[in-house]
């Protein structure tokens, strides 16, 4: 995640960030946001590169590192190697590397691309990218692959890489790394909805009898009581859905919806046929949609 030099206050998820120095001539800065649903710990990196990392526990403990390499900065191979050496395995290295290589779908390979190729080869890492383009250069109306996802070999068979189709008012497409068998859906632990409980029926089912607690083994007696209460709760108290809830925007109306659809339609046409006429039509639709939302 690349940031500008403006101060941004982020609330809600946990965040770890590294901003560029005040007065720097180039934009940049990196940030990782982690959901409160997953335990995470920031890692201290000793590097001059724009990079941050966290260890997050999803199915297992995984290190996630986000890096930004400015296109015109000289980056030494040793700095890249030192960064990778500091990452506990297994890890995923994500970022805007600003390098071109035929390895990830570019037409040519430049010096930055060769550096990244050596980094992958020297450390026996795996590249998750396919030939999908991740960056749109508006002045030349061309598409490139600048954003990469690199991982430890043990993670390669577990992960799935895709590129989003919407620029989201950026010049980079979102890159999405997910577990290959997750189906793309975020599951939340279901919760009991106590306000909708049938307490009368619950009291009938949650009947702790003498036979449940008269056993010689105290552990068995406690388990009998727990099983009785859980069975009563499951039959009388509804649960929330494990699916991620969509939060409705009160200001989103039909005009916003229609203008957004037209913007996406014009973008898809331009992406397939990048002519000047289609580019102008897309920019007009984008400007109209933005004006309506404001």
UniProtKB/TrEMBL annotation:
InterPro entries: Endo/exonu/phosph_ase_sf, Endo/exonuclease/phosphatase. Residues 1-14 have a biased composition (Polar residues). Signal peptide: none annotated. Residues 1-24 are annotated as: Disordered. This is Endonuclease/exonuclease/phosphatase domain-containing protein. Residues 63-176 form the Endonuclease/exonuclease/phosphatase domain. Gene3D superfamilies: Endonuclease/exonuclease/phosphatase. It comes from the Eukaryota. GO terms for molecular function: catalytic activity.
């Amino acid at each position: 995640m690349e940031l500008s030099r403006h101060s941004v206050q982020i609330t809600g998820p946990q965040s770890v960030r590294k901003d560029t120095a005040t007065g720097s001539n180039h934009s940049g800065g990196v940030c990782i946001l982690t959901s409160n649903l997953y335990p995470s710990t920031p890692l201290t990196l000793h590097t001059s590169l724009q990079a941050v990392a966290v260890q997050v526990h999803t199915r297992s403990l995984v290190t996630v590192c986000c890096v930004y390499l400015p296109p015109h900065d000289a980056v030494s191979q040793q700095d890249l190697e030192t960064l990778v050496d500091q990452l506990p395995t297994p890890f995923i290295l994500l970022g805007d590397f600003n390098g071109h290589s035929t390895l990830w779908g570019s037409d040519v390979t430049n010096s930055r691309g060769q550096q990244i190729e050596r980094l992958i080869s020297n450390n026996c890492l795996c590249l998750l990218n396919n030939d999908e383009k991740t960056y749109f250069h508006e002045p030349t109306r061309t598409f490139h692959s600048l954003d990469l996802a690199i991982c430890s070999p043990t993670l390669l068979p577990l992960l799935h890489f895709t590129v989003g189709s919407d620029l989201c008012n950026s010049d980079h497409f979102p890159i999405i790394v997910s577990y290959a068998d997750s189906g793309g859906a975020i599951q939340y632990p279901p919760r009991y909805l106590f306000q909708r409980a049938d307490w009368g029926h619950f009291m009938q089912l949650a009947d702790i009898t003498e036979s449940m607690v008269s056993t010689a083994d105290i552990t068995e007696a406690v388990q009998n009581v727990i099983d009785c209460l859980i069975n009563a709760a499951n039959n009388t108290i509804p649960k929330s859905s494990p699916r991620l809830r969509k939060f409705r925007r009160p200001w989103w109306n039909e005009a916003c919806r229609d203008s957004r659809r037209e913007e996406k339609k014009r973008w898809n046409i331009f992406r397939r046929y990048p002519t000047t006429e289609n580019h102008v039509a897309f920019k007009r639709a984008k400007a109209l949609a933005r004006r309506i939302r404001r």
